[in-house]
Design a protein that fits this description.
The chain is mainly α and 457 residues long. The protein has 16 helices and no strands.
């Protein structure tokens, strides 16, 4: 039984894992190159990335509601309805793009929180301006990704993500350091944002071409000739799930991303060390995210096909599998943390700042895996409000709020090891453990009370 679940999860999980690693490689490339450029550019990347992630992730979460909706319709054998939902998601992309571009064009609130100096602030503005132009393409690709994963086509997503990475890598090196022979100046962190913008639009255009030409998508009628008018019922169905999903994912990710903004108040070296540790943790997170995505797809399809027992069993098996893999990976990174950080930077001060943060990774990663997979399984059952409320208390309350109290010694008498960036990481780890316990417990209690899942609307 366990082996059967693993065989079903693995073919869907590994392409998501590879694809998400390629996405994360965008920021990894930026971090590695800017670590060899200047500390000011690296600090601007940390603050700018936190701002962009805070905006993009919440909007992405709203659009990812498409995946459980389409997954259940696909499992029920209703392809045209699944395609209709994907078409309606384009209206959400339009609205979210306009709002997101406006937020990124005026990043004053993020700069105020970070108390960035004039040099770093100017670099952050340029970086976010470039990323603002990439936002519509990123959101369009989110729809493509959510739809394909829901219909068990993760390799189609992975292929384009790898192609985007192949374009991003040389472009970033060229734009960050410049090329005198070509008349290109060194653009620093702005070059990173510009390279990302070009790569994301190339991915979005390629995704559109693939959807039009691949006969697999014909039953979904994605390019039917009728006008694309807003469908209030379909949009309500996506927003009913997407708004709490987006809010929950925003709270989860921003609770970690905003750490960089607050750590920037401590100094350039502290935030640069945090950026290295955060990048390592982000790479590790791709594994539980892949398992969660694959498990959620199988659960949604089983529910749509009227097999609630199979959905329940798959959800539990995915949770245990993901936590076991996380324990192995977290332990390996903890053991090799010194040479691993040496791959990022030769700056002894930055490595010294990052070392105590990476030491939290073993516990951090297991808790992160558990809460992610449990939340995805619940969302496959179209439960998003409870995970959002849990995230607010755990990630913002314990993680971000507790980190603030410790890092800046607000109550007084905080141990020196828990002040500064270390305080934020300790609190973030505690918040993740709390979220993992609460979400897994709720998942267990709710599934036991649900012998049958309600029919599709």
């Amino acid at each position: 039984m366990w082996r059967d679940s693993a065989r079903r999860i693995a073919p869907l999980a590994w392409p998501v894992f590879v694809g998400q690693l390629s996405v994360l490689a965008f920021s990894t490339i930026d971090t590695l190159l800017l670590a060899r450029s200047s500390a000011a550019d690296l600090a601007a990347l940390a603050v700018g990335s936190a701002a962009f992630v805070t905006v993009f992730i919440g909007f992405m979460g709203v659009l990812l509601a498409l995946a459980p909706v389409v997954g259940q319709l696909h499992g029920a054998g209703r392809p045209r309805e699944a395609g209709h939902q994907a078409r309606q998601a384009l209206w959400l992309v339009l609205v979210l793009s306009l709002l997101g571009c406006a937020l990124l064009a005026f990043p004053a609130p993020f700069l105020a929180l970070a108390r960035a100096g004039p040099e770093v602030a100017a670099k952050v503005r340029g970086y976010l301006l470039a990323l603002g132009w990439s936002l519509p393409a990123s959101l369009l690709f989110t729809v493509y990704r959510g739809f394909n994963i829901a219909v068990s086509r993760p390799k189609a997503v992975m292929a384009l993500q790898l192609a985007g990475l192949a374009l991003k890598l040389p472009l970033t090196g060229l734009l960050v350091f410049g090329a005198g022979g070509l008349g290109l100046p060194a653009l620093g962190v702005f070059g990173c944002g510009l390279a990302t913008c070009i790569a994301m639009w190339a991915q979005a255009v390629a995704a559109l071409a693939l959807l039009r030409r691949d006969p697999f998508y014909a039953p979904f009628a994605l390019f039917r000739h009728e006008p694309l008018r807003p469908d209030a019922a379909a949009l309500r169905a996506q927003l009913r799930l997407g708004l709490p999903m987006g809010a929950g994912i925003l709270v989860e990710v921003s609770g970690f991303a905003l750490m960089a903004v607050f750590i920037a108040r401590i100094g350039t070296t502290a935030v640069a060390g945090h950026q290295l540790a955060a990048n390592i943790v982000s790479i590790l997170f791709m594994m539980p995210l892949a398992v969660a995505s694959a498990t959620s797809t199988l659960v949604a399809q089983s529910l749509g096909a009227g097999r609630p027992q199979d959905a329940r069993r798959t959800g539990w098996h995915g949770l245990v599998l993901g936590c076991a893999l996380a324990a192995l990976m977290g332990s390996a990174v903890y053991t090799a943390r010194r040479p691993l950080l040496g791959l990022y930077s030769s700056d002894g001060a930055v490595i010294a700042a990052a070392l105590p943060l990476v030491a939290w990774v073993a516990v951090f990663h297991v808790a992160d895996a558990a809460q992610t997979i449990a939340a995805y399984v619940l969302r496959a059952h179209k439960i998003a409000l409870v995970p959002m409320l849990i995230y607010v208390g755990a990630m913002w309350g314990v993680g971000l709020g507790g980190g603030w109290l410790l890092a800046f010694d607000v109550p007084g008498g905080v141990a020196p090891a828990l002040q500064g960036a270390g305080g934020f990481w300790f609190a973030a780890t505690a918040g993740l453990v709390l979220a993992a316990l609460a979400l897994s417990g709720f998942m267990f209690a709710w599934l036991r009370r649900q012998p049958h899942h309600p029919a599709l609307p």
